[in-house]
Design a protein that fits this description.
about 240 residues; 4 strands; mainly alpha; about 40% helix
Length: about 240
């Protein structure tokens, strides 16, 4: 469903009234994006500790949810995207997973041997290229994500397990696809969108958003009517 404010922003961008830098951006999303693109030093040696003993040690040390520094991550590592970039990055609610699992070692199964480094190192610290001749036993980052996430979701019978359940497909850069005059009117913009998205347009014409079917709770004097909108008496065209 396309909301009117979003459509207005899109039209302003197309007309050059707004620059992409003028559009509001969520601060936590931008912070996560910057963190995802950081170069992570490779941890060559890790402490080969028994998983049960590691879990007991962290429990005795009092590690808990209060130690979490970042509750949200965007899994958008250049290690993966530089090789293959068919899908949009995954939005990973780190804090929510930690609160649900209640066991840091479920994902952070080893720690760096260097004790000056973080106990719960980032995945990309140990898992990077899909194959490294120096550490052939290491799983690459992309495989590590999929093995860890999908296998856990399957075991718990909770959470997504299919590609499109986690990933959106990357949208092509429309600056290379759209052909519009310098200052297009709304009808020209619509016609250009329909040039490629005619099926989506046909589907929208039968959608409740377009027909505006359902209770009109916030419509003055027509609260009990169920067809007050584009399909009947309204004159808007967004």
């Amino acid at each position: 469903m396309i909301r009117k404010p979003l459509l207005i922003v899109a039209l302003l961008l197309l007309n050059g009234v707004l620059c992409a830098s003028d559009v509001w951006k969520a601060s936590d999303q931008e912070k996560a994006r910057q963190k995802a693109h950081e170069a992570v030093p490779f941890v060559e040696k890790y402490l080969d500790e028994d998983p049960i003993l590691r879990r007991m040690r962290l429990y005795e040390e009092g590690m808990s949810l209060k130690d979490i520094e970042n509750s949200y991550f965007l899994l958008d590592s250049p290690i993966i995207s530089e090789v293959q970039d068919h899908y949009a990055p995954v939005r990973f609610p780190h804090g929510q997973h930690a609160a649900s699992v209640q066991d840091c070692t479920a994902c952070h199964h080893y720690r760096p041997e260097d004790k000056t480094l973080a106990e719960t190192a980032r995945c990309a610290s140990c898992h990077q290229e899909f194959f490294d001749s120096e550490t052939p036993e290491r799983t690459g980052l992309k495989a590590a994500y999929h093995l860890q996430c999908v296998s856990c979701h399957e075991q718990q019978a909770r959470g997504p397990v299919m590609c499109r359940d986690c990933h959106l497909k990357n949208v092509p850069d429309h600056r290379e696809l759209v052909n519009l005059p310098e200052k297009p009117d709304p009808f020209q913009v619509t016609a250009e969108c329909l040039r490629c998205h005619d099926a989506a347009a046909e589907n929208m014409l039968s959608a409740s958003h377009w027909l505006w079917t359902g209770p009109s709770l916030y419509t003055a004097k027509r609260r009990k009517e169920v067809r007050t909108g584009k399909g009947t008496i309204a004159l808007n065209n967004y």
